[in-house]
Every structure is written in structure tokens, then in C-alpha cells.
Amino acid sequence: MNSATLPCTRIGAIMRKDLRLLWPLAAASAVLQGLLGLLQHRSTPFDIGLHRAIPVALVTLALVVSMALVIVITVQQDPLPGANQDWVVRPIRRRDLLLAKLLVVALFVHVPIFAIQILQGYSEGFQFGQILPAALLSNIEIALVFTLPVTAIAAMTRNVGEAFVGSLAVLVGIILAFLAIAAVHYGLTHFWSLNEPTGGAGVQWVWRSLSHLWLLAVTVTAVLLQYFRRGTLRARTLFVGGLLLFTLASYLPWRPAFALQEWLGPHAACPRVTIRSAAGQSVRVARIGRHEPAGLQQVIPQVLLTLPLRVSGLPARSMLHVDRAAVRLLGNGGAAYRGLGDTPDLQRFSGGGRAVLEQGFPLLKKIYRRLARGPVTARIDYSLTLFREQTLGMLPVPGDARVPELGRCADRLDPNGKVLEVACMTMGAEPPCIEIHLLPPSGAAQTFMRCGFDYAPAALRFSVNPLAHLQSQVRLAPGIAAALDGAPSVSGYRIQFLEYEPQAHFSRTVVISQLDLPAGPQVAAPAAAPSPPAIPQPQAPAGRS
Q1: Weakly modelled stretches of the chain, pLDDT under 50
Q2: What backbone phi and psi angles, to 5 degrees, belong to 101?
Q3: Which of the two ends of the chain, N or C, has the fewest CB atoms closer than 10 A to its terminal CB?
């Protein structure tokens, strides 16, 4: 029979060959995935503890290595680089070969992950409608940041050893290039202070999503070059350059990210918030020192300049969050300063939605001395987000129950009886900002706020682990601690969960002319540093575990 008359589609045959050869390694990877799910299982929403955290880390490392081996060996069963390309002379379409490899990788890697995540969700008491979208989004994230890049590396190398050495060389090269760029831009003595412009902010998702799309495009292009053009050198060059740009994408500037957030974000509330200088309030200055890394063993003298500002127009049941405060100072002598200020948060005070914002920012002592020689013009460009409050539900103390829109929550006293620990476990995207109120039978409530400030759409707020674990602590007043510790079953205390959802993103600019800065002896001592406003400050997100 002429080879030209043979069937061209060999996807099933290639898959059967790979399954027959590699099923033991795939089975070992699936067993590790199941073991990891068992170790991560919680009987309560609280953390699994150190005695299980170490085994979880070891099993996770073994699982990552096993999945990488499965992908690399699967792809290299029919190697692309080199002269041993017997599939070229066989009647196999390159498209069919690529599809067969992708299907085998999905079967070996993603099907076990998806199945274990479904079982995990059921074991923690979640409904299938909550589990399915979270598990699908989790697998998409794993495919973007792990499966597809490893597949591209396997397609551009001849064997496992070459894939490992090549990956290590690329990783080291990217780190060295990154440090070189940072050293040139920030100075050889301060390159470690390089911070992401949007790092930790709610708009961080903008550049993160862009970097994910870029990584997907680079990976897919490299794979297609290999399978359809056998352009190994071009594919490797494209992949390495694309990875370098991927690592630097998060350092793109703030303004375009926030402008895009303003355009895409909610516009339900038209904010009429105004910020101006507070009449009758004086500028406060305190000496501080910023410690450099331990290798330098030095303290840079600084002063903390605090400008009192008046905020008005805050709607009821809302919170105003300062995403970024860009400060510029210009003195009569020509001395100028540009920097970032603190980002305090304000809840609506009584009195018609007005509050005082204590805007502080650090200055090097020598710069402050130059500015203090005469009047200064201050300009502060604010990037702001208005949040609207929404009640989620109640939880008794002590208690372990489901809270609507949040998940399974529980609370307990720490061994010392001075801190109330609150933990929740949710499936999928966690709320961007949660406020916890400890409500006594009578009297004032104690409040704690836990905010991650992630403004990404719900469909883009996903992680490799679909189960989100939130844990916070409320330090108790002595009387409350004694009441809870003495008779917890009849204490009558309850925990109320409030969620703050973004309602509007907007910008404001404050200009203060003829600002007189205190000089010399008027600078306060460190003990006189201004205390923060009596408002619960958000805690950085604890992340997913």
C-alpha cells in the first residue's frame, strides 16, 4: 500500500502509545495529588498547623517535579530538535501530533487536579455550583503559569537533562538581567528597594492579567514554531525574551493601570468627595529613621511630615480608600521633592460624612531642611476608591457555621485568652475587603478590618488553589476577654461580617500654597510622632493556603 494512502489522523494511536509507556509516572503524580488533598483537608476553617504545613510543602514540591517530568517525557516521546525525528517520515500531520501531546498532558496533569479539587470542595461542604467554576479557573491558572511553559521547554529540548539545564540557565539569566536593570536604574547601593508601582494595590490585576496574556502568546507561538516550522533557535530566542518581558510586566507605571481601572470599574456611585486643606490645623513633623538592609548597618535620618486635610461628601455606609498619594513639594529656593505618601483609609464619621485625613509622607532630613527655608507649595495627586458597605451575616461566639456570600466560618479564643481568632474558608474569589465586628450583649463593638483590595473582576480573581483561607485576629479588651473565657457558652457575643465592594474609582488633586514648615527646634522628637487616626487599618491579605 502506498504510504500516501495511509490515514493521516493518528491522534488516537499516539495517545495510546504514550499512555501505555507513561501510565506509571502519571499514576504516581495522581497519587501525590490525592495525598496533597488529604493533607490540606481541614476539619475547621482554621490553619492546618505547622505539623502538617511541612509535609504539605514537601508533597507539593514532589508533585511539581512529577508533573514536570510527565509533561517533558510525554512531549519528548516524539522529539522535535535534533536528527531523531522519525515522525517526520511517517504519515502523521504535525497538527495531529501536537493535539495528541496536549490531550495526553491534559489527561495526565489536569484531570487528576480537577477531580481532587471537586472532592476537596465536597469534603469541605461546598455545593457543586460553587466548586465547578472555581476548579475550572484554577486549572486555567495552572495551565497558564505551569503546564504550557513546561510544554514549550520540552518541545525545544531533546531530553530531560537538557530541559532541566536549559530551564535552570533561563531562570538564572532572567534573575541576573533583572538585577542588572534594577542596579542601573536605582543605583548599585539601592537596587533591592525596587518596588512594583502597583504592588499590593487593587489595580495590580491589570498588569498581572497583561503579563498572563503575554506569557500565553509567547508560549503558544514557541510551541507552534517548533511543531510546524521546527525553528528551534527562533523558538528558544522568542521564549527567553518573552519570559524576560513577562517578569518585568508588573513594573509598568501606575497611571495607565488606574486609568484603565476607572474606565472598566463600577460607576454606580457618582462620588462628590472633596479633599481640601483643613483650616486651623498645623503641619506636624517628627524625626524618624529608616533602617537599610542588615548588610549596610546604617540608618538614614528622615522626618515624617503630616498634612491635615478635610474630606467631605462621604456617603453613608461607605469607606474611602487611598490607593495612591503622589506628593510634590516645591520651595521658593527651587528645592523640589517627589514621592509617595501614606495611604490611610477613612470610614464615614458622624457629622455629615466629613472626616480629617492625616496625610503623612517621609522626607530625607537634608531635603526637609532645604524646603523649610521658606514657604512651600504642596501638590498631592490622589487615586481613590469608594467602597459601599454590605452586611454578610452573623456568627455566634463560639461558633462554626456558614455565612452567606462568604463560606464556612469559625471563631475561637487563643490559648492566652486575649485574642479572638476568626477564620473563614471560601470557594473561589474572596471578597476584596471584610470588616469584622465583635458585638457584645450591650455596649460598644470592637472592630477589625481585613482587606486585600483586589479590584479584578470576579472571573479574574482566581488562584492555583480554589479554596481561599481567610484568618484574622481581634485583640480583646480585658473585660471582654474575661467574659468570653469565663462562660463562652452563654456569653451572648456575636461576630458580624461586613463586606466592602468597590463602587467607584476616581482621582482628586489637592494644592496647598504658602505652606510653612516648622524648622530646627520646632521639629518634634521621636516620642511626639503623630499617632494614626482612630480607625481600623486594613491588614495585608494572608493569601491562600
Answers
A1: 1-8, 187-194, 291-298, 348-351, 488-490, 521-545
A2: -65, -45
A3: N
> Which residue type is seen at 158?
R
Which residues have a Cβ under 8 Å from the Cβ of 250 and sit 6 or more positions away? 196, 198, 199, 204, 207, 208, 211
**CA 298 to mean position of chain CA atoms:** 31
Report how far apart, in Å, the C-alpha atoms of 480 and of each of 43, 177, 415, 436, 495 are.
27, 55, 15, 16, 13
User: So what's the pLDDT on residue 416?
Assistant: 73
Q: How far, in Å, CA of 186 to CA of 190, rounded?
A: 6
Specify the residue for cell string 461576630: 495
Question: Rg for the chain (alpha carbons), in Å?
Answer: 28
Cβ count within 10 A of residue 298: 10
Residue 523 pLDDT:
46
pLDDT in tens, 421-472: 888 888 877 777 788 888 877 766 677 767 777 888 877 777 778 887 777 7
Residue type at position 536: P
Question: What CA–CA distance (Å, rounded) separates 324 from 306?
Answer: 16
Closest CA to 332 of 370, 285, 283, 275: 370
| Residue in this structure with the C-alpha cell 473582576, named with its chain if needed | 457
- DSSP assignments along 362-418, one per residue: EEEHHHHHHHTTS-EEEEEEEEEEEEEEEEEEEEESSEEEEETTTEEEEEEE-TTSS
Query: Parallel, antiparallel, or unpaired for β 433-439 and 494-515?
Result: antiparallel
The C-alpha cell that represents 41 in the structure block: 483537608
Compute the C-alpha angle 497/498/500, nearest 5°. 145
The pLDDT mean for the chain works out to 76
Looking at residue 533, its pLDDT comes to 39
Question: Which has the closest alpha carbon to 393: 402, 385, 384?
Answer: 402
Name every residue whose Cβ is closer than 8 Å to that of residue 232 and which is 6 or more positions away in sequence. 80, 81, 156, 226
Question: For residue range 32-51, what is the model confidence (pLDDT) as tens digits?
Answer: 999 988 888 877 788 777 77
> For residue 351, what are the contacts with CB-CB under 8 A and spacing of at least 6?
none
Measured CA to CA, the distance from residue 541 to residue 350 in angstroms comes to 29
φ, ψ dihedrals at 544, nearest 5°: -105, 140
How far apart (Å, rounded) are the C-alpha atoms in residues 134 and 131?
A: 5
Helices 148-155 + 160-186 axis angle, to 10: 110
Q: Are 228 and 238 in contact (CB under 8 A)?
A: no
Relative orientation angle of helices 232-248 and 160-186, to the nearest 10 degrees: 40
pLDDT confidence of residue 479: 66
pLDDT value of residue 280: 59
Burial class (CB in 10 A: 0-12, 13-18, 19+), 117: buried
Q: Any residues with CB less than 8 A from the CB of 457 and at least 6 apart, and which?
A: 264
For residue 264, report the phi and psi dihedrals to the nearest 5 degrees: -90, -20
Phi, psi angles (nearest 5°) of residue 308 = -80, 130
DSSP at 530: P
